[in-house]
Structures are given as structure tokens and as C-alpha cells.
């Protein structure tokens, strides 16, 4: 029974398909259908350009209000302030350094740079607002409208003090982070410069050494007759250290110039054998003796001028 139902169903579907195909063929013969895809075309919409109605609607929208209610301004840009000019120059220099430091960023000319264009656009808005504020305040004063708050005016803050403290801390931390990164960048550049200078000095030293060895080899082979290049190196070495200034020499002579201090006055083998300052006349009675010390203090009688009086004479003189 099931097989019979399936067979009858298949015959009916086949007849429907054949009938639809035959209808399409007949429509194609009559010219009702053309070869290609059949797309349903929607009718075109017609828009009414009713100019009088639009002008009438525009007149309804326009409100004849005084300037105080509108506060619209049309003015030129304010002149560029010196600090703004410096800021623009710093911004351009910073952008140029970014291009130099990072090769992954494609280079863009300043006229077509979107970053610089946005910054300059903001500056133009700022200058426009400056002129608008100046002219607007003048107009408000002419209209008799006060532009300043009274001294006893009290406005409640929209944000709490705690919130403002958090914002302030965040700004301070951000500024410190920028300063820290800038300091690190400067140190990194200084290290690079120091390494470059050191490398250059080493390369120069190595080049001089190579040249000297080459000249020595040439001298051994007989290509050079003298060793003047060695004298040139010695002259360069001698001319290197500079002599100290005269003022520095006088100070060194007076106060010394460092070095070992302890034991500098002890006798040495060379000093003990040096008898250039010895005088037999001066040392006849002995340099440390009492007679040598009182040598020039004697009178005609051969007694010392400053000899102390006896006890009895001292007592008499007190009376």
C-alpha cells in the first residue's frame, strides 16, 4: 500500500513539473518571456519639488529673536599667541622625532599629517573662541547684562572634594610618569653618545696602532730609511698633558699638591749624605748649645746682656 502511494505521488509531481515547463515554453514562443533572469522591477518614486511650500515651512521655523537669546557670533581668528606658536613648534618637532625613532611608522609630510592637522584644527577653534568671547562680552556690556558673578555668589560643586582629590592625584601621577620617562630617555641618549665617543676613540687608537705597525713592517723591509714616525708619536704624547696654570703652581708650592704626607721629614740615605748646607763656622760651638743661642747678646766684659740678676739685687730692686 505504501509503495503504491509513493508511486502515485511521484507521478503527480512529475505531471505538475511538465505542465509548468510547457506553460513557460508557450510564453517564450509568444514573446512574453525573454531569455535571462526575471527580476521584479519596482516602480520609480517621484519626489515633488514644491519650492513654495518649502519656503513657507522655512519662514515658519525662523524665529525673530533678539541677539541676547541667540548669542550667535561671526568673527575672524585671534592672532597666534607666542606660547601657542611655541607649542605648535614643539608638537611638530615631537612628531618629526617619532618618525625618526620608529621606522615602522610611514613618513607623512606635515601638510598631510592627520595628527598635526587635528592639532592645528583645535588651535583654530581656540583662536575663534577667543575672538568670540571678546566681542561677545562687549555686546553683553552694551546690552546692560552683567558678565561677572557677584563677590558673595556661592555655587555648589557638581563633584565632591574626594573625587577632585582623586583626579588631582591621577594628574600628578601622570605628570610624574612623563617626567620619569623623559629622564630615562635622556639618560639613554647620553649613554648612546658616550658609547659612540668611546668607540670613536678606540677606532682612532686602533687605526694609529695599525699605521705604526705598517710603518715598522715597511722599515724592516727597507722601504723606509728612518723611524721618524716614532718621534711623531712621542711628540703627540708629550703635547697631550697641559701644564698647570701659574696660579695653581703657586698654590701647590704654598699648600702642597697631595701625595704622601706622613714621614716626609724623616732622614733618608740621600739626605744624610748631603752636606751642602753644612757650615763649620756656624757649627763650631754647636747649633743647639746655649753658647750659640747667646752668642750675639754679650757686652764688653764678656757677660750676657740679658743675664738674670742675683736674688739679693732683685730683693733690693723691689724695695
Question: Any overview of this molecule?
Answer:
By secondary structure, the chain is an all-alpha fold. The protein is elongated. It contains eleven helices and no strands. It has helices spanning 2-30, 51-61, 67-70, 82-101, 114-142, 161-221, 228-238, 246-255, 269-273, 290-293, 311-318.
**Oligomeric description of these chains:** single chain
- Radius of gyration equals 55 Å
Number of strands: 0
Tell me the structural class.
mainly alpha
Mean pLDDT: 77
Write down the overall geometry: elongated
| Low-confidence residue ranges | 1-14
User: Largest beta sheet, briefly?
Assistant: none
Distance, first to last CA = 178 Å
Beta-strand percentage range: under 5%
> What sequence of helices (H) and strands (E) makes up the elements?
HHHHHHHHHHH
In short:
The protein is mostly helical and 319 residues long.
Which key features would you list for this structure?
0% strand, 11 helices, 319 residues, single chain, disordered N terminus, mainly alpha
List the helices and strands and how they pair.
Elements: H1 2-30, H2 51-61, H3 67-70, H4 82-101, H5 114-142, H6 161-221, H7 228-238, H8 246-255, H9 269-273, H10 290-293, H11 311-318
Helix pairs in contact: 4-5
Amino acid at each position: 500500500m505504501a509503495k503504491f502511494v509513493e508511486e502515485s505521488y511521484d507521478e503527480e509531481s512529475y505531471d505538475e513539473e511538465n505542465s509548468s515547463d510547457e506553460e513557460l515554453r508557450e510564453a517564450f514562443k509568444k514573446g512574453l518571456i525573454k531569455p535571462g533572469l526575471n527580476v521584479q522591477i519596482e516602480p520609480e518614486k517621484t519626489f515633488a519639488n514644491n519650492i513654495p511650500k518649502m519656503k513657507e515651512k522655512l519662514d515658519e521655523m525662523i524665529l525673530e529673536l533678539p541677539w541676547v537669546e541667540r548669542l550667535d557670533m561671526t568673527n575672524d581668528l585671534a592672532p597666534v599667541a607666542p606660547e601657542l606658536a611655541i607649542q605648535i613648534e614643539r608638537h611638530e618637532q615631537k612628531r618629526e622625532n617619532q618618525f625618526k625613532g620608529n621606522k615602522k611608522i610611514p613618513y607623512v609630510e606635515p601638510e598631510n599629517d592627520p595628527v598635526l592637522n587635528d592639532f592645528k584644527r583645535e588651535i583654530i577653534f581656540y583662536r575663534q573662541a577667543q575672538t568670540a568671547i571678546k566681542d561677545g562680552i562687549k555686546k553683553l556690556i552694551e546690552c546692560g547684562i552683567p558678565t561677572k558673578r557677584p563677590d558673595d555668589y556661592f555655587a555648589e560643586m557638581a563633584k565632591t572634594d574626594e573625587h577632585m582629590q582623586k583626579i588631582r592625584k591621577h594628574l600628578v601621577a601622570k605628570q610624574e610618569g612623563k617626567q620619569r620617562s623623559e629622564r630615562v630617555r635622556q639618560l639613554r641618549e647620553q649613554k648612546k653618545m658616550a658609547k659612540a665617543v668611546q668607540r670613536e676613540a678606540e677606532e682612532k687608537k686602533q687605526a694609529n696602532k695599525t699605521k705604526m705597525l705598517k710603518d715598522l713592517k715597511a722599515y724592516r723591509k727597507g722601504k723606509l730609511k728612518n723611524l721618524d714616525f716614532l718621534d711623531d708619536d712621542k711628540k703627540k704624547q708629550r703635547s697631550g698633558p697641559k701644564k698647570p696654570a701659574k696660579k695653581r703652581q703657586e698654590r701647590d708650592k704654598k699648600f702642597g699638591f697631595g701625595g704622601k704626607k706622613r714621614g716626609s721629614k724623616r732622614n733618608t740615605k740621600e739626605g744624610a749624605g748631603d752636606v751642602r748646607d753644612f757650615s763649620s763656622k756656624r757649627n763650631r760651638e754647636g747649633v743647639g748649645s746655649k753658647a750659640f743661642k747667646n752668642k750675639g747678646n754679650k757686652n764688653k766684659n764678656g757677660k750676657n746682656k740679658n743675664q738674670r740678676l742675683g736674688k739679693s739685687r732683685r730683693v733690693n730692686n723691689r724695695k
